[in-house]
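Why predict the complex rather than its parts? Because the way molecules touch one another can change local conformation, and only a joint prediction can capture that. The input here totals 608 residues.
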Amino acid sequence: MIEKILFKKQSKVQLYIAILGTFIGFIFLTTSVHFFIRINESKKNEDVLKGKAIVIQKKVSSLSTLNLVKTDFNPDEIEKLNSQDFTLEVQPIINNSFDISIQTDSKLLPYFRSDIFLQAVDARFLDVSSIKWQWDENDAYVPIILPREFLVMLNTFANARGLPQVSEELAKSVSFQFNLSGNSQKTSKKVKIIGFTGDISSILVPPSFLNYGNDKFGDQQSLKTTQLLVSIQEGTFGKLEQYMQSHGLEAKESSLVIGKLISVTSSLLLILIGISALILLLSSLVLIQYTQVLIAHNHYEIRTLLRIGYSPQKITKIITKYFILIIAFTALFSCIAFVFLKITIDKKLLDSGLTISKTLTLQSGLVLLFVVLIYLVLNYLNTKKEVFNAEESKS
Amino acid sequence: MNLHFDKVIPHTLNDIQQKENGVWNASFSLSKGEKIILSAESGKGKTTFVHLLAGIRKDYEGTIRFDEKDIRKLSLFQWTQLRAHQLSFIFQDLQLFGDLSVEENLVLKNERLPTFTNTKLKEMIAQVDLEDKWNTPCNLLSFGQQQRVAIVRALIQPFDWLIMDEPFSHLDEKNKDLALTLILNRINELQAGMILTSLGENQLLEVDKKLYL
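Output of the joint prediction:
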């Protein structure tokens, strides 16, 4: 009965505007929060090299081919790069100075052998546990990180032989073997793949293994630092790019492109989160104003209800319940719209070559829940104030 | 619940000369069960007096207490509790819901604190000669008919005091008697008191006290 009295006189147009604004705001917010999280974690998930770490090297030119320009880094150059404001950390990548080949060591894979090039990177640049990323002579196997191109090459070879393709998961579960030689010695070591990278073209091993190989089989004189692993601050890809251009440096293109893409997309998504917050703020103001207009239109009814003994709490509860239903349905429909939008965007990203996790993020749901709660609390407080004002105003 | 007045005067009447035996600026008490008539000329503050007791107006000096409780200190929630359980009002402007039917107006009041069955409500409406208006929206009734609906609505709750502001102003003698009979029966049933403003002479009503403004 009270509902019949209170919601008869209402301006539906204003309500529809508020609902539409809230609906759009909810969709924008959940979508931008979801993709902000997914895009930022996508590189982490796909690659063992940490998201903001980049491998850089000097540009190879005709002069360097003729040995007129050095392609290795001296300590001053490393220190200069390390002192830049965008740099978090610089680490020289150690190379092997001995002969080494890798071969398959499992009946699950066809026999395959190839001479390879090793590099060592410290565990703190990698998304693997430091326990997994260590080796000593007594260990059963050497943990390695394989470039994805290597797996592509292995699969091309398998395909040519009419053998089944090897997935990343299968490759991780089977054994390989290193054959080390030099200084008139040779040995073999079992190898286990613990991850893949698209950013480094050589096989990565723990520094302790490379030091062991270089000491025992290698030529210490020929050790040079030709590549650096640079970890930079978030959103500073532009500064790094400028520095590289002015110092004749280059990074692996895919690493830089993905880094830039993630940086730009993250910034755009942050702007979208801001716009969503603005839309929600405006629509909450419209909704609050709508409540005020609704209560003003029903001033006589509310005042009379109070005078025949209905408590302000009861009236506030009825109006709040009405808005809970409106906001809950708006949130529900925006969730459904968000899921459809997410499926569409996921497909577009996949078509563009960017794979991200398809599962819904808990955070986007929590943000939506938080905003809904803010909406309801604001609306409750506003309604309560207006109901009390209805009694206070002159009869 | 007894009502106590201690030198009460509304701000709007501060500058007006008050009668010696008048209510304003006087100290007196009204006990539950008393039937009181408040008479005054127009503009002397009858409606203001009712509104002070209803907690609608607070622009006065002095103190009004319900038992020992100063009504200035009552919260809105406490006022609504009093209006539901101990004080019932018939305001001069009636304060019905015009879009609701007679039945809906009464049911809305009865839902606040279920007191009577729908059959009993219909009987009470029949007692004031409005049974054929049961489903009629109140804004389609004459003011006299609306007054009778407001009277019935005021009776369908428990109360210690029934406070009425010119409730019979648009009723003819016959309907006034019907309404007054219903009121007195309910008051006697509850052993409640009543305050009635501006009633002409009526043989049915024996008053305990007359107040002047």
